Amino acid sequence: MNVGIGLPNTLEGTDRDLILEYARRADEGPFTSIGVFDRLVYHSLDPMGTLATCAGATEDIRLATSIIAGPLRSTAMLAKKAATLDVLSDGRFTLGIALGARQEDYEAAGADYRSRGRRFTRQLEELIQHWEGDEIGPEPVQDGGPQLLVGGESDPSYKRVARFGDGWIGAGGPPGRFGGCADSATAAWSEAGRPGKPALWGHGYYALGDEAVAKAGEEYLLDYYSFTGPFAERIADGLLTTPQEVVQFVRGYEERGCDELIMFPTVGGIEQYERLERVVESEL
Amino acid sequence: MKVNVIGGGPGGLYASVLLAKNYPDWDIDVYERDPADNTYGWGIVFSDSTLSRLREADYKTHEQITDSFAKWNPIDIHYGGEYIRCGGHAFAGLMRAKLKDILRRRCAELGVEMHWEHNVEDPTSYAEDADLLIGAGGLNSVTRETYEEAFKPRVRMGEAKFAWFGTEKPFDVFTFIFRENDDGLWRVHAYPGEKSTFIVECTEETYENAGLDGMDEQEGLAYFEDLFADHLGDYELESKLYQWRNFPVVNCRTWSHENVVLLGDAAHTAHFSVGSGTKMAMEDAIALQEAFVEKGSDDIEGALNWYEKERRDPVNRIQDAARTSRRYFENTERFTDLEPERFAFNLLTRSGRITYDELKIRDAEYTDNFDRWFAGYATDDDMRAIARPPMFQPLSLRDVTFENRAALTPGPSSEGETGHPVAKQRQRLVDLTEEAAGLVLTEPLAVTENGRLHRGTPGIYTDEHAEYWDQSVAEARDGPVLGAELFHAGRRGATKPRERGLDRPLDDGWELLAPSPISYIGESQTPTEMDEDDMARVREAFVDAAERADEAGFDLLQLNMAHGYLLGSFLSPLTNERGDEYGGSRDARLAYPLEVFDAVREVWPDGKPVTVKLNATDWRPDGFTLGDAFATGNRLAEHGCDLLTIVAGQTTPNDRAKFDADVLERYSEGVRNEINVPTMSTNYVTTTDDVNTQVGRASADLCAWYPPDADVNSL
Question: How far A194 CA sits from the closest chain B CA (Å)?
Answer without folding.
Answer: 6
